[in-house]
Amino acid sequence: MISIDIELLIGDGSGTKAYIPSVEEGIEWQTERRGSPGKLTFTLLKDDMPGFSEGSAVRLTVDGDKIFYGYVFKQSRDKDQIIKVTAYDQLRYLKNKDTYVYENKTASQLIRMIAEDFALNVGTIEDTAFIMESRVEENTSLFEMIENALDQELTGTGELYVMYDDFGQLTLRHLSEMYVGRPGAYLMIDEETGENFDYTSSIDDNTYNRVKLTYDNEDTGFRDVFMAQSGENINRWGVLQYFETLSEGENGQAKADALLKLYNKKTRTLKINNAMGDNRVRAGSMVVVSLDLGDWKQNNFMLVESCKHIYKQGEHWMNLTLKGGEFVG
To answer: What is the pTM of this model?
Structure first.
């Protein structure tokens, strides 16, 4: 057993005071790298704590580390007044839909614009480089708009950025800033620190050996077609085609070449169960994994796609889904 100092605060209905509730054992904090807000779930015992409501602020710190700041979105209770609470960080508001038409913006500029329009608190937003000449996002979630822009950055420059909420501040960082630890002391997941793993290799999801992109050219009246393919892997796996229509201003051939480079490989997914918990790890983090997976020996950095922390009295575990190197699933 280890000693863990867990402090959970929840605001009252007026939003003017915060209280420490009686929490049943087991608090879960979950993050996803794409398309989902940070999520905190816990169970309260009804006592003399003043009532709270949807929208009440929730704050979690563990051993002094700032883990989660968000808001109650759902609560349910039974006849014994055991209350199950679900809170999300402010990325939950990126599920809102809207229509944006913009020109000559980078992904970071788009994020700042959306954050201002929807009154989100902003922290560090690192500058991205790829300029989108013209884009129309109609009746689309804000999450999807931002993901599309970051995908444009990835295919246009090869650079990967991670967006997340850092204890109440919308944050965008380059992947190089997401390593857990420092040279000589990086966090490592191996047979000793991970209780079990689930490894899958596949060409069934997110594997493409031919990329076909089209653009309806109004100036010429013809449809422009851009192709990139791997004859070697077509011979091995048959034709696995990725198709997409281009927006005005996109470099079709450069995008096709970049997408082929990204997807022309097996997808390998690795899930680690009940690893020793580390508060620094979240979706988007980079950790060292050293495991013999049978047909593959992994001993390198991997990207955390999803992360669930489980905090109990004297216990802290985490479940991870990872990608990196050949892991693109």
So the answer is: 0.88
**Distance (Å, whole) CA 84 – CA 63:** 24
d(CA 193, CA 195): 7
**Assigned token pair, 233:** 């892997």
Residues whose CB falls within 8 Å of the CB of residue 286, separated by 6 or more in sequence, listed in order: 175, 178, 179, 180, 301, 302, 303, 304, 324
Within 10 Å of residue 313's Cβ, how many Cβ atoms?
10
Length of the chain: 329
Query: What would the pLDDT profile of 278-329 be if each residue is shown by its tens digit?
Result: 999 999 999 998 887 776 677 788 899 999 999 988 899 999 999 875 444 3
Give CA–CA dist 251/263, Å, rounded.
18
Residues of the chain with pLDDT under 50: 326-329
Distance of alpha carbon 107 from the chain centroid: 16
Tell me the angle at which helices 107-117 and 142-157 cross, rounded to the nearest 10 degrees.
Answer: 170
Residue 310 has φ and ψ, to the nearest 5°, of -120, 115
Tell me the CA end-to-end span of the chain in Å, nearest whole number.
Answer: 35
Q: Contact at 8 Å (CB) between 64 and 49?
A: no
Strand partners, 77: 83
Integer CA distances (angstroms), 111 to 108, 147, 152, 162, 294, in order: 5, 10, 14, 12, 42
- CA 277 to chain CA mean position, Å: 18
